[in-house]
Amino acid sequence: MKHLIQQIILLIFYLVFIDFVQASQTSVCHTDSPYYDLLVEKDGIYLQETIKAENKISYISQSKIRLKEITDKGARIISDDGNKILVLSNAKYYFIPKPLYIKINKYEITPLFNENEVSKIVSNKFFLISDHWYYVSYTSEGESDKHKIPELKGNLEIIADSDSNNYLDNNAVLLKDGNAVYVYDINKNKLEKIPHLTPSQTHLIQSRNTPYYLYDDDTFYLFDRDFKYTDITKKFNQQGKYNGFTKAEMHTNWSVDSMDTKDGLIWIKIFNSFKPVKATYLNAYKDLYVYHNKVYSHNWALQDEAAPSDPSYRDGSIDISNVKNPGELHKISFSEYFDNQQYYSLEENSRRLEKKEPSAYLKLLTAKDHIEIREKRIFIDGQQLNTDQFLDAPIFLGSIVDIISPCRKIILPACGYEYRSKQDYYYFFTDGKKVYAYINLGENQKPKVLHNVSPRNLKANDYDTLKKLLNILLPTAKKND
To answer: How is 332-392 classified by DSSP, letter by letter?
Structure first.
């Protein structure tokens, strides 16, 4: 019964989620990580921030700000940890906080160390000074905060960092040196050694629900969102696993996390432990399982089938007889599947995968926005666009996003959350004589022509050019919606 209740709860989450997506025609508003360039201009040194959509093609925004304290035209960016940028200028290291306009205008940029003092830098956080490691941060008051960590020795490596990981809430760093593996609590300036791990053998795997699995050959930990860890080695040993964790393969995916021990057993994650099942994977995606010639996609379904004497037993297998290409079948959401040729939906009554047309959400999960031009034809993510109006071969000028409604937090079907917004994507092309725009994507879609715009002197893949074209087209586009 408890497994049936789990399925019902997840189904409710999923239906609410899909209803939201279909009603508002939203798209995922996650962006690619911003990237930064130092610009040397006549009046000074500027830091430019560029943000693109996840397709890595479409611009969302671009801005720049002058770095008044940095005047060296040979300045260069050393690293970027997601929260701050490390810059080397005039033989001194500087932190530049992000986002740009919130902090740089408010605080002065002050030097951290002289270049000749620093022997090594690890992940923009740890600096080796005179054989001692220092953790260095940028405080909310605009000052650098330096903490000496005498316990750390020799080579240092960051394994995971909560600052740059959306799954983790705590301000901590998982790291190792030649002696041990540690959790460093940044707020408390406290280094805690994790017992029983050999640094050279230690592996880290990120999961969807449990943020991390951390293990060496004979010790296995679960890491939660607060960077707290639980040793589950005994649970493995009680079920007969003695041949070493590093010899196995860990797989994480939509369905369930699992461990393949290469001996006919797959260890399925169920709650906070793993259970061995004599099963195989359906294919290389490692997210569907074959047990007694039946195919399964959920941990609790496979668990029930492996224990038919349980009062809550039900056949949780799925019927894939309609699938065109089972060798590529994989799960892309709670009840949607894709075999790289056709989309499918799992029908609960028949437990059969039925062909379906992809929703906007499904398209987003598989879209890459790969742009290909063949003679006079344009293909974006495999879709051919109508180019009948083009007089010559198309040239891609670039893409930009018009955000219609801001990000909104919604609950995902399999726990967790995601931000989504309503957006329009504009793709601009020219044939050397006219400029054309496609709004979003549709099969054989006809372009809008910007009749009063000359393609002369237009820069390709240039934010200012694309923003100017968008502003010309936007009133007409919205009027015709």
So the answer is: -SSSEEE-SS-EEEEETTTTEEEEEPPPHHHHHHH----EEEETTEEEETTEEEP-TT-SS
In sequence order, the 6+-apart residues with CB closer than 8 A to the CB of 245 are 203, 215, 216, 217, 218, 219, 220, 236, 259
Is the model's pTM score more than 0.90?
A: no
Which pLDDT tens digit goes with each residue over 99-134?
Answer: 665 556 666 788 899 999 999 999 889 999 999 999
CA–CA distance, 385 with 378 (Å, rounded to integer):
6
The Cα 281–Cα 284 span in angstroms is: 7
Q: Is 71 exposed, middle or buried (0-12, 13-18, 19+ CB in 10 A)?
A: exposed
Encode pLDDT of 409-442 as tens digits. 777 655 556 667 788 999 999 999 999 999 987 6
Site of tokens 């080695």:
233
Tokens representing residue 330 in the block: 């994989």
Phi, psi (rounded to 5 degrees) for 154: 65, -145
Q: Which residue has the tokens 């196995």?
A: 248
**474: three-class secondary structure by DSSP:** helix
CA atoms within 13 Å, Cβ hemisphere of 341 = 8
What's the rounded Cα separation, in Å, for the pair 110 and 103?
13
For residues 470, 473, 477 and 479, what is the CA-based torsion angle, rounded to 10 degrees?
A: 120
**CA 353, CA 345: separation in Å to the nearest integer?**
5
Residue whose C-alpha is closest to residue 79's, from 127, 17, 24, 18: 127
Q: What is the rounded CA–CA span in Å between residue 169 and residue 165?
A: 8
Q: Report yes or no: 53 and 441 within 8 Å, Cβ to Cβ.
A: no
**326 SS3 class:** helix
Contact 276, 239 (CB under 8 A): yes
Q: Identify whether the C-beta of residue 365 lies closer than 8 Å to the C-beta of residue 333.
A: yes
Q: Residues 195-245: pLDDT tens digits?
A: 999 999 999 998 877 789 999 999 999 988 778 899 999 999 888 876 789
Q: Compute the distance between CA of residue 260 and CA of residue 447 in angstroms, rounded to an integer.
A: 50
